Amino acid sequence: MPWGVHHETDCPLEKLIGILLRCWQNAHPFKESTPSIKPGAVQFRYARMHFDLESHDSYASADDDEDRMVPNPAKTKAYQKVVAARNAHADAAAIADINLMALKTPEEGARELSLTITNDMHNQAMAPFWEAETALTTAEKDHKKIPAKVRLGDLNPGQQVLDTETKMIHTGIRMAAYNTAMTIAREIRTNTGYARANQEAHALMRQAFNQGGDIDTTVPGHLTITLDPLPTQAKKQAIAKLCEHLTATQTRYPGTELILRYKIKNSA
Predict the structure, then answer these.
(1) CB neighbours of 234 closer than 8 A, spacing ≥ 6?
(2) Which residues contact 259 (CB under 8 A, 6 or more apart)?
(3) Is pLDDT at 122 greater than 80 in this prediction?
(4) 131: three-class secondary structure by DSSP
(5) In sequence order, which residues have a C-beta less than 8 Å from that of residue 35 and are 6 or more positions away?
(6) Distance CA 191, CA 246 (A)
(7) Calculated CA dihedral for residues 105, 107, 109, 111, nearest 10 degrees
(8) Which 8-state DSSP code applies to residue 228?
(9) What angle do CA 60, 62, 64 make, to 5 degrees?
(10) N-term to C-term CA, the chain
(11) Taking each helix axis from N to C terminus, what angle separates 13-27 and 164-191, rounded to the nearest 10 degrees?
């Protein structure tokens, strides 16, 4: 018996759908209904919301590389102090200019235009500027002394990192499931004649996926998937036509020479 082929009765269709959908994708590659929209854009416009692609499916983690060099947060904090010191220096320079202008300007109504400016008066006017200049020089020197990067082990020893490979696998599965769901829903709308296909194609697809079914390998050269009937006649007929359309593709089960056939039971 070929690998992966077995006979099972009343198994959930979730076990069968991998066979059905994978082969259907092989027989009918994805076609663009709107040429201006690429498949990737469609996936990330809708699948990110419906399948929550950005969530963490697995929180498995491993030790991060402690020898990896990472940005030093102390460098950022020191630079913020430099920026603050530069702003204070600019403000102090403006204040010093105002103070010097006041010293050089005679009082209103004064008869004599000569002024006397002593060293103490000049130093008092320039004191805020010199203080800000000293603070700026100190901040810039402190900033230069701090290394831009440090070892991760020194900054945050024992840091863990999520297993990104597992996340990528789960994301790929979800995106493949999205493409498959869109393909099956489109086939229900276009090839089954279901009256409410435009409104209920996805709901009908989900309902069919939740039904049980049988896998039969007793017929030589064929792998037959028989689905349990749906509760209403209209839905059962729609899925029956979908099965006929899928069977007509004469798709081979991957890795074998078996032709896939799809049916639905007439009664429960």
Answers:
(1) 194, 195
(2) 221, 222, 223, 250, 251, 252, 253
(3) yes
(4) helix
(5) none
(6) 10
(7) -70
(8) P
(9) 140
(10) 29
(11) 80
The per-residue pLDDT for 229 is 87
Q: d(Cα 240, Cα 246) in Å, to the nearest integer?
A: 10
**Which residues lie across from 212 on neighbouring strands?**
12
Pair 253, 207: CB distance under 8 Å: no
Tokens of 105: 């300007």
Structure token digits, residue 16 = 């069968």
- In the block, which residue shows the tokens 């296909």? 197
Hey, where are the domains in the chain?
8-50+196-264, 69-155
Report d(CA 246, CA 119) in Å as an integer.
Answer: 99
CA 65 – CA 147 distance, rounded (Å): 19
The DSSP 8-state label assigned to residue 258 in this structure reads: P
Calpha distance 132→94 (Å, rounded)? 12
- 3-class secondary-structure state, position 231: coil
Both tokens of residue 267?
């009664």
In the chain, % helix, strand, coil (3-state, to 5) comes to: 55, 15, 30
- HSE toward the beta carbon, residue 228, CA cutoff 13 A: 16
Residues 6+ apart with CB under 8 A from 45: none
- Determine the distance from the C-alpha atom of residue 35 to the mean position of all C-alpha atoms in its chain, rounded to a whole number: 24
Give pTM, 2 decimals.
0.42
Q: Tens digit of pLDDT for each residue in 200-256? A: 888 888 888 888 888 888 889 999 989 888 888 899 899 899 889 888 888 888 888
Contact between 268 and 229 under an 8 Å Cβ cutoff? The reply is yes
Rounded Cα distance, 21 and 253, in Å? 11
Q: Could you tell me the two tokens for 98? A: 């105002």
